[in-house]
């Protein structure tokens, strides 16, 4: 009978095989549970093992590549490149990013394992799916590009907002002015602002500075007509100690020097004396100057904005303004039209100033339609400055919450009210008569109320008290008080 008993050497072999099996299971378990894909090749690039992680993210089945050479797989388009091929050539670890045929992108680090003879025995490639990472990177780059675009748009909107808040305008002519101001704010070109007195040349210069890259630097303003010639030079250029009697012991910085890294606004530049025009030309050309009594040049970085209501070119022809300075200043001319040429802006400006002074003085005054019509029709020789001053005066001095027509200055009433109210434009208003105006759109009831209101306002203004005004109008003073309340007329 055959002996089935296992001999001791056979038993050891079984134990060894069982141990090897367990080790293989352990190795398979470790490799297949790795976060990275793992691809193992022999020294010739033949695929020996691929884990399930790689199969899962790449979309390539293990059976497709097992036992196949990496060179063939690249040739067949499984990958755009192979780190293992580079390892076989260079005999060192290599990291690359390649694209898998399924569209996935992977970062591969392939490392050689050498035998005792220094030859490549195995190549182990760690493969990480970076498709999502690259997608996030591309999204981040797109977001950053969008953010830069939004930032540029925000800066542009900021410049536009600054202009809109400070310089109210709806007219097409002023929109052209503001667009030009926005464009020139982005560069350092010299600007010459032209226009009549009171149109807002100083305001526009301020807005250009605020919207420029110099906005964090100083804006120094000097009115060339406001100082005598003897003081103007020292104020502009400063002086060294001991330059003249009465000078400060330590000397003094000039306004040009104080404007370093900022903007120097020279208002009424036409009034600058000829010898100072020469010195200013050097500042604009060379960005350097001498203080009075100084021997050392002072370097500066300053942007020049000048303004005038004069015809500089005519002054050049007459020899009263340097031609070379004129052309240095005339790099970017911006002309602000007078208010009479942009009547669309009168009402928005009036309402803006009304709100401003109501807030300042704690009132709630209103401008009725008939007053607004007269404001719009007036020529405004003093331009925006004149309009602002008038609105402040009306807010402060008006006796009612609604500003009455007769509270407008005589200049406006004389030029506008008479022409609108009387059929004969040459007729004169009798000194014993009141001049009353009613809107063409008024109903009969509204016209009577407006007539009554204006009569009461005029009587109160002329007679100074409620009792005397009531007596003049032939009504009881309590009736007058009730009507004043009805029409929001404030009794002194």
UniProtKB/TrEMBL annotation:
Residues 23-74 form the PAS domain. Residues 133-167 form a coiled coil. Residues 167-396 form the Sigma-54 factor interaction domain. The keyword Nucleotide-binding applies. It comes from the Bacteria. The keyword Kinase does not apply. PROSITE patterns: PAC, PAS, SIGMA54_INTERACT_1, SIGMA54_INTERACT_2, SIGMA54_INTERACT_3, SIGMA54_INTERACT_4. Residues 90-142 form the PAC domain. It holds the Pfam family PAS. Keywords: Aromatic hydrocarbons catabolism, ATP-binding, Coiled coil, DNA-binding, Nucleotide-binding, Transcription, Transcription regulation. PANTHER family: C4-DICARBOXYLATE TRANSPORT TRANSCRIPTIONAL REGULATORY PROTEIN DCTD, TRANSCRIPTIONAL REGULATORY PROTEIN. This is HTH-type transcriptional regulatory protein TyrR.
């Amino acid at each position: 009978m055959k002996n089935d008993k296992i001999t001791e050497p056979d038993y050891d072999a079984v134990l060894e095989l069982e141990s090897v099996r367990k080790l293989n299971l352990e190795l398979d378990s470790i490799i297949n549970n790795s976060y990275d894909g793992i691809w193992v090749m022999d020294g010739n690039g033949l695929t020996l093992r691929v884990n399930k992680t790689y199969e899962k993210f790449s979309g390539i089945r293990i059976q497709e590549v097992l036992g196949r050479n990496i060179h063939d797989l690249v040739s067949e388009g499984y990958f755009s490149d192979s780190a293992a091929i580079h390892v076989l050539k260079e005999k060192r670890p290599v990291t690359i990013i390649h694209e898998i045929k399924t569209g996935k992108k992977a970062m591969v680090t392939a490392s050689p394992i050498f035998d005792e003879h220094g030859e490549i025995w195995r190549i182990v490639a760690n493969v990480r799916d970076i498709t999502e990472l690259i997608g996030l990177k591309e999204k981040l780059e797109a977001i950053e590009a969008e953010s830069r675009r939004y930032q540029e748009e925000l800066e542009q909107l900021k410049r536009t907002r600054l202009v809109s808040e400070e310089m109210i305008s709806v007219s097409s002519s002023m929109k052209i002015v503001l667009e030009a101001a926005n464009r020139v704010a982005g560069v350092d070109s010299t600007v010459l602002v032209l226009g009549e007195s009171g149109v807002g040349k100083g305001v526009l210069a301020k807005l250009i500075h605020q919207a420029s890259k110099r906005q964090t630097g100083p804006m120094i303003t000097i009115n060339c007509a406001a100082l005598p010639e003897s003081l103007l030079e020292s104020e502009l250029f400063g002086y060294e100690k001991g330059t003249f009697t009465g000078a400060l012991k330590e000397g003094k910085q000039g306004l040009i020097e104080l404007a370093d890294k900022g903007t120097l606004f020279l208002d009424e530049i036409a009034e600058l004396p000829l010898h100072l025009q020469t010195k200013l030309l050097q500042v604009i050309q060379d960005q350097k100057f001498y203080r009075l009594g100084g021997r050392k040049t002072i370097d500066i970085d300053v942007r020049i904005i000048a303004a005038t209501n004069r015809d500089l070119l005519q002054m050049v022809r007459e020899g009263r303004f340097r031609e070379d300075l004129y052309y240095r200043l005339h790099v970017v001319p911006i002309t602000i039209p007078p208010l009479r040429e942009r009547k669309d802006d009168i009402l928005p400006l009036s309402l803006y100033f009304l709100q401003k002074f109501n807030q300042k003085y704690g009132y709630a005054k209103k401008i009725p339609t008939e007053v607004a019509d007269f404001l719009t029709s007036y020529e405004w020789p003093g331009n925006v400055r004149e309009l602002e001053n008038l609105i402040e005066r009306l807010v402060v001095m008006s006796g009612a919450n609604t500003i009455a027509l007769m509270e407008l200055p005589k200049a406006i009433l004389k030029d506008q009210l008479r022409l609108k109210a009387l059929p004969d434009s040459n007729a004169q208003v009798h000194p014993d008569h009141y001049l009353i105006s009613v809107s063409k759109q008024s109903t009969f009831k509204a016209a009577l109320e407006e007539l009554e209101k204006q009569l009461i306002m005029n009587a109160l203004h002329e007679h100074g008290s409620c009792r005397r005004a009531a007596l003049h109008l032939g009504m009881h003073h309590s009736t007058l008080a009730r009507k004043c309340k009805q029409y929001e007329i404030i009794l002194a």
